[in-house]
Amino acid sequence: MDSTKENNNDKDGLLLRMGLNDNKAGMDGLDKEKINKIIMEATKGSRFYENELKKEKQVNQRIENMMQQKSQITTQRLWKAQLQVDKLAMELEQSRNLHCTIIHIDMDAFYAAVEMRDNPELRDKPIAVGSMSMLSTSNYHARRFGVRAAMPGFIAKRLCPQLTIVSPNFDKYREVSKEVMEILADYDPNFMAVSLDEAYLNITKYLEERQNWPEDKRRYFVNRGNTTENEKSEAVISKAPGLNEAAVSISPLLFEDSPPQLQQQEPEIPSQAHFEEQRDPQVLQNSVIFGTSAEEVVKEIRFRIEQKTSLTASAGIAPNTMLAKVCSDKNKPNGQYQIPPNREAVMDFIKDLPIRKVPGIGKVTEKMLKALGIITCSDLYQKRALLSLLFSETSWHSFLHISLGLGSTQMERDGERKSMSIERTFSEISKAEELYSLCQELCSDLAQDLQKEGLKGKTVTIKLKNVNFEVKTRASTVAAVVSTAEEIFAIAKELLKVEIDADYPRPLRLRLMGVRISGFSNEEDRKHGQRSIISFLKAGSHVLDPVGSVVDKNDQDQVMKPPETSHKESFFTKKRSEMSWNHQDNFKCEPETKQSFQVSQPPSLSKEEMKENLETENTDDCQVITCPICFKEQGRICLEALNRHVDECLSRTLVDCDPKTVAVPQSQSFCSEVNLDLKTHKTTDSLLIDFVPSVSVDVFSKGKSMEDLNTRAGDEQSPKQYSSLWSKSSLDEYFYQNSSQENEGYDAKSSGGQTTLQTSFPRDETLVCPVCNLQQKTSDLMLFNSHVDICLNKGLIQELKKDKVNPVMNCPAENSKSTGSSGKIQKTVNVTAKTKRPGLMTQNSTSKKIKPNNSKYTIDSFFK
DNA sequence: GCAGATACT
DNA sequence: AAGCAGTATCTGC
């Protein structure tokens, strides 16, 4: 069923929840209507169904609350939020790392594929692996009938009576998985296995080395043995000892345990298409040489996997894990997809990507966002300010990451696990003794698992699901870590007892029990540095050191900056960002240097860059800096002095600032547009859009001069210039595109890479600060942006301080009290969103306590 | 720290 | 004949 109309329909929502209604399944076996009908019939009236309905109502309620909250958002808040969000966006943009090649490998219908491989009778049949009560995988044939993972087998059977359900054989899957992982290790010994059939690799380093490899080192021999299933099975299970002679002679490390069979013809080796011409006609027939590009490497990996296991894999290549994961899904099964490592390509890919495709965004989030009109990642970007007000910080941060196409480049080893658990479903148990002994069993199983990883934890949680599918968890934390079955059970037993007693004399009628342990001892170490952005985005603020390992930026900052000087950071951070933009641009033009470019330590530094670098490393160093307020170069001024200077400049402009003295035609300043709408005090989205362009240009045009922008608007660029100046920022493009859709006021359009800008943005060479309305003495966009940022912050403070209408914003200050700001702008000229704000109130969509005064969006928290 | 919610396979 | 999982993490108090 079309997922676009699932919103207010319980039935559809339920089906969606059951994972059957996604538009992800292309099914010719049965049409969607039919599938949904069958599922409904099979499920309706069951306790399960009732519970699903209940859960769905909760989600709907949540959405309702969110909408309610949304309706109360004032334009000022939205506006402030926009500033904050865009500040972060700018920083994120600046720290964007495109220098990693991450790949995500995903075996196609893994369990099912293994079973089919090993049992010829299963081929060409719809099959699923699992049991009558639950399936873990289905093959593509079965998927056409709507049979999917996480579906109970009995329902699957109704959808597809011919379905063969094979019980899982995990040992075998593990074995096959191991074979695959062994191949992967050749490319990244540090790769991260997500599950038996999925892994991430960072092949950045490998790729570099490979550039110099002779062909022979990249040559693989085609094992044409389309072995019979049994042989294959044997080959897999009992590592065939025979080696391919040719392979040995040329590349001893390869195919060390390939099946020796060389028989008939392979029906369709996908990689065959990429055979390269060989000089040696002898080898031509059965060897293949892969190139040195990432794409070729991945083809090689998939080729090797198929050769070794007779199974196919899909893969994604991208600059970060989040994108790689999405990519691997794109040409599934048995395909691959690459996002080239440049911003434009990333943005282009992200542009129309439905948010649901993004790992971490599940059904619920999708539904909530859909309620806000957000379907694609562009929508996500457009509504970023709103999202920052409606969602928790973690959430909107992750949304922002997603909409900018950012993600982790780090391979997190799974040693970082935070909890371990075990749970089991059974037919109803209600006798206390049975429950206890079951619990004990679980505890000892868990203890075993713990032992395997040598973990000990302090928190024990039990999970109970009653026959109505209602889930309860109860946790208890003890002083010292525990790990043995007895210790865990002692705690779990108590928890269970409380629950049993609570319902007495009615029995607990359970269908599932689980035990979890968390609070591992090593978790202590990294207490504050914990970021909770979903793991895919986790390293968004990570930079690579020259060796390719990851340095946490936060830690870095902490190390590099004494705490007492950290309050001065923001301005310089910004400066640094701007410079980095230039770096990025440079690297864009010089692919050669790209590879070796490392954010934290650029190999070749210009003088300018040097300065910036020193600055980041030592706040006491004196630098040549241009003041973003008066735009006078400050020479080699030390930070203290510069801050003083900026402060002075600021207080001066505060006095000087008289909009009337500056003749700025309304049409030339976007600010006038904002004014117009702010006056109306609309709280609609369109209002948001009104001022988005201003900030967006600000944020996303770093490194481009205003002349560039204007020229761009006026067209007639050589294509080359065009691409380096503008089109790299395709976010801009759909930004304009979208704003034109939603707001007539902005006559902007984008077609075929041509973006015409006809906003009220100044069209001449003059830059007019939209906040203070003063003509600026610079045409350097970076400097200009700094100025605007500072003005914005200044304006907010002013506004609050005087509690009167700000001439620029032309709207009353929000009733938040300014507690902290003295007359003089503090050293915290710019507040960077990166800065941790410990005391902030968190928000949730159901929160009742969104009081303007203690909201995290009050100016105080802004400037904390 | 706890309980419930969400996501992924 | 009836029947819908297991694991980890995140979120909001």
Automatic annotation (TrEMBL):
Its main location: nucleus. Residues 594-604 have a biased composition (Polar residues). It is found in: Nucleus. One of its GO terms (molecular function) is DNA-directed DNA polymerase activity. The keyword Nucleus applies. Residues 102-362 form the UmuC domain. Residues 766-796 form the UBZ4-type domain. It catalyses: DNA(n) + a 2'-deoxyribonucleoside 5'-triphosphate = DNA(n+1) + diphosphate. Keywords: DNA damage, DNA repair, DNA replication, DNA synthesis, DNA-binding, DNA-directed DNA polymerase, Magnesium, Metal-binding, Mutator protein, Nucleotidyltransferase, Nucleus, Repeat, Schiff base, Transferase, Zinc, Zinc-finger. One of its GO terms (cellular component) is nuclear body. One of its GO terms (biological process) is DNA replication. The keyword Translocase does not apply. SUPFAM superfamilies: DNA/RNA polymerases, Lesion bypass DNA polymerase (Y-family), little finger domain. Its EC number is 2.7.7.7. InterPro entries: DNA/RNA_pol_sf, DNA_pol_Y-fam_lit_finger_sf, DNA_pol_Y-fam_little_finger, DNA_polymerase-Y, DNApol_IV, PolY_HhH_motif, Rad18_UBZ4, Rev_trsase/Diguanyl_cyclase. Gene3D superfamilies: 1.10.150.810, 3.30.70.270, 3.40.1170.60, Classic Zinc Finger, DNA polymerase, Y-family, little finger domain. Its cofactor is Mg(2+); Mn(2+). DNA polymerase specifically involved in DNA repair. Plays an important role in translesion synthesis, where the normal high-fidelity DNA polymerases cannot proceed and DNA synthesis stalls. Depending on the context, it inserts the correct base, but causes frequent base transitions, transversions and frameshifts. Lacks 3'-5' proofreading exonuclease activity. Forms a Schiff base with 5'-deoxyribose phosphate at abasic sites, but does not have lyase activity. PANTHER family: DNA POLYMERASE KAPPA (PTHR11076:SF33), DNA REPAIR POLYMERASE UMUC / TRANSFERASE FAMILY MEMBER (PTHR11076). This is DNA polymerase kappa. The gene is POLK.
